Amino acid sequence: MEHAYDHLLHLLAGHPAWMLAVAFLAAFLEAVAVIGTFIPGSTAMFLAGALAGTGSLNLGALFACAIAGAVTGDGMSYWLGSRYKSQIGQLWPFRTHPQVFEAAHGFFAKHGPKSVVFARFIGPLRAIVPVVAGTSGMTPVRFYTMNILSALLWAPAHILPGVIFGASVQVAGAVSFRLVIIIALLAGIVWLSFRGARFVLSHASAWASAVGRTLATWASHHEGRAGRLALQLLNPDRPASGAIGVASAIVLLSCWLFFGVLEDVISGDPLVRVDVSVYHFLQSVRSPWGDTVLSGLAMPGSVPTLAALVATAALWMVWERRWRTLGYWLAAVVFSQLLIVTLQFAIHRAPPDSLASGAYVFPSNHVAAVVVVYGFLAFLLTRRVGTLAGVFVVAASTVVMVSVSLSGLYFGRFWFSDAIGGAALASVWVAVVAFTAVLRRPVVQPSRGFMPVLMLTVVCVSVAMQLHVAPPTPKPGSAPGNAPVIATTSQWTDSLWRSLPCYRSDMEGDRKEPLAIQWSANVEEIGSRLRAQGWVDGAKLSARSLLSLASPRVSAMALPVLPELNNGVPSLLVFTHPGSTRDERDVLRFWPTDHAIEEQGAASATPVWLGSLVHERLYRASWPINMLRAVDPATSTLAGHDPLSALRGVTILAKKDCHGVPVTLLTSRPD
Predict the structure, then answer these.
(1) Where along the chain do its domains lie?
(2) Exposure string (b/e) for 389-404, b if CB count within 10 Å is 16 or more?
(3) Which residues form the LssY-like C-terminal domain (predicted)?
(4) Would you give the distance in Å from CA 419 to the centre of its chain?
(5) Is 156 exposed, middle or buried, given 0-12, 13-18 or 19+ CB atoms closer than 10 A?
(6) CB contact at 8 A, 303 and 337
(7) Is the Cβ–Cβ distance between 68 and 24 less than 8 Å?
(8) Could you report the per-residue pLDDT of 317-334, keeping only the tens digit for each?
(9) How many of the other CB atoms lie within 10 Å of CB of 99?
């Protein structure tokens, strides 16, 4: 099996059209009873869609193969159910896990023929419901009508995200690394929010019971007033005991998180180093269009939008005569802001944006306000709607809260730890208000299915009005980047080189490989000199290069080169050179600096680049993933490898010692 998988991946890496056969088999096997439980058909569909998005695969042919495989697989399961009606329950795994078959029977009895369509999107039931349809005597005409309809909906739902991903990587990689990062951040926020909301709500009941039992056990061993009150609140006979337990756990976790962040901010270690790296990273991917997009994403958390939501929710609670809940919520909004302002003046932490003079940002009052408003609305709405609508409510609220926080980080309005601290402190207030509301009204509240639509309408109208009055446009000079420090060649070789780091620093501030090259040259000059010496541009991230990570007998040069971060800034120039074997390669990475050298007679100053040289070797012990590891990074310097000394048009100005790291200063000169 392992050898067959090796051979299949090798063929796919060289001939992406074979993915059509894989798509058919994945869709077919995923729908076959029992087997479909272990087949990752969705992953195969996404990968095939990514290849189609890059132009390596025909999208129409891919849809045809996926639909045909899905229809055939469900048809096979339906035939098994029709053929072995009486014996199917005695076969494995239905014999050892009868609850699976019973759940499928209940689902089919509830939804009838439509269950064939619905089950296609539900993992545990996907391959079982067609079997139940066969055992229940569903006619072939009706079954195949639903079967084909479900396949027509299922295939695009699983292939199109891959197509969008592949096309985005293809276009973004050709336009700008910044575009790739912004797309990945925004897509990750949406995807994680919906998956997280779905996971949390699906397990909320079990978690509530577990938390309630834990707290009840603690209370039983404490005979004081607090213990008796906790036992009374967590009585299983009370309809809200689970929700009260969850709210109590949120308060404890949020307090632990806030005080942990506060300790790191006061001591300056280690979260503060992450703050600097995150800020530098986001500043390195800023662009005019990015400013416009992030400004628009921040509008659902603007003061006018928050005020409109608070007013709408207040009118709602007045209509329901929930005076105490309204009072608690408004008090939470007011007192949380007062507490945050007090903490800000006590800690005196300035924002990264130097233009915001006199402002203090720990914890972030803006993030806290957004969490208090949207968090409480999510609590109110999820109690009034079904599970599916609750997933969308929680996910949408999370997307807004994270997007607003990302926007503030992107524009340098506050640090990463400020956002975490503000969100944690606000979560305490939201949990306390929810705890109080549930305690006073533990019964299930009447359904209000229109309220999510109303709140969404309020947000959309508010954002539209703000866009009409003041559309988000990048301000002149808002793009990052300070004026470079101009120096002469002699100043650089005498002292300026010491101001540049000797080692690469990761997001947490840990020291990595040496930065052994300081090169004064333009981007075009660096590329032309290196290519003439046999260096090639590092393989870009694409669907095909990612596929090579799991391909057997791949060479090190064919694998993608990741843009490493130095203090949050990605390497903008990456070049590779073949090693002595197919499993080895040398990698040169360059980072920009804030320094430039003004040479005599030059029309403009030439930027200085920091570079690292790493020798990598392919490591296959973790098959099926090909891993590249750096070999002796401390000795992979110019002194030992000397790949640049013979470059035409390049002069070695000096060789320095930077705390034990031999640093070479280079400059380009006309041929």
Answers:
(1) 2-171, 245-469, 485-668
(2) bbbbbbbbbbbbbbbb
(3) 497-617
(4) 17
(5) middle
(6) no
(7) yes
(8) 888 787 777 787 788 778
(9) 8
